[in-house]
Amino acid sequence: MRLLLVEDHVPLADELMAALGRLGYAVDWVADGRDALYQGTVEPYDLVILDLGLPGVPGLEVLRQWRADSLSVPVLVLTARGTWSERIEGLKAGADDYLGKPFHPEELQLRIQALLRRAHGMPNQPQLQAAGLLLDEARQCVIREGVHITLTCAEFRLLRYFMLHSGQLLSKNHLAEHLYDGENERDSNVIEVHVNRLRGKLGKTVIETRRGQGYRFAGVGT
Ligand code: CA
User: Fold this and answer.
1) Predicted pLDDT of residue 182
2) Can you name the CATH fold of 128-217?
3) Potential cystine with 31: which of 8, 19, 67, 181 (Cβ 3.0-4.6 Å)?
4) Cα 48 to ligand 1 centroid, rounded to whole Å
5) CA angle 105, 108, 112 (to 5 degrees)
6) Does 4 score more than 80 pLDDT?
């Protein structure tokens, strides 16, 4: 999953970039509202973490303009502690959730996971489940019929994306765009390697190849 972090406080942004990276998210960071406006509309983010007090264009205005442009990406707003007015304004402007500063990293992690499940039609699941698999996002492993199967970081990132997009046809380029940040070189052939490793661990039929089109996780018959 690829996230956009909009935060002008550099120490906090550094801390969040590191924490989100450890959680297996690809993250692009901008510190200015004008950059956020542009970046949010040109790149296919899966979620945005948006600070409200920003130079350039205020966070609320960024959010209003994105929503006016029909950008439906889930947005988690970061607000100053105890300012109920900011929270209300954020929600009115189209935020999907908010978090008051300072916050515990685990709370951010759980809210991101919940927002992503909700955005992909799984609002009632406490954990990500698909095709008989349960993804343990804290341990970055997958459980099938009570058996833990270990995953490398790259396999975990890919499987999480597949599990959130079950049954959908996903091209290698699409997967590369959502698994790597803007700084990373995207080699879509690497995706093929990781798909094959996941098949080795989870069984051949779990990911179907459509020649020339891409992959489908948990398609018909699985
Ligand atoms: Ca700020």
Assistant:
1) 83
2) Arc Repressor Mutant, subunit A (1.10.10)
3) 8
4) 15
5) 140
6) yes
What contacts 109, CB < 8 A, 6 or more positions away?
Answer: 19, 23, 137
Per-domain boundaries in the chain: 2-119, 128-217
Residue 221's pLDDT band, with cuts at 50, 70 and 90, is very low
Ligand 1 centroid vs 17 CA: distance in angstroms? Answer: 16
Q: Which of 84, 113, 87, 106 is nearest to 98 (CA)?
A: 87
* Rounded distance from Cα 78 to ligand 1 centre (Å): 9
Predicted confidence (pLDDT) per residue in 151-168, tens digit: 999 999 999 999 999 999
Query: Could you tell me the CA-to-CA distances from 126 to 111, 137, 199 in Å, in that order?
Result: 11, 11, 26
Residue at 212: amino acid letter:
G
Q: Is the pLDDT of residue 220 over 70?
A: no
Q: Is the pTM of this model over 0.85?
A: yes
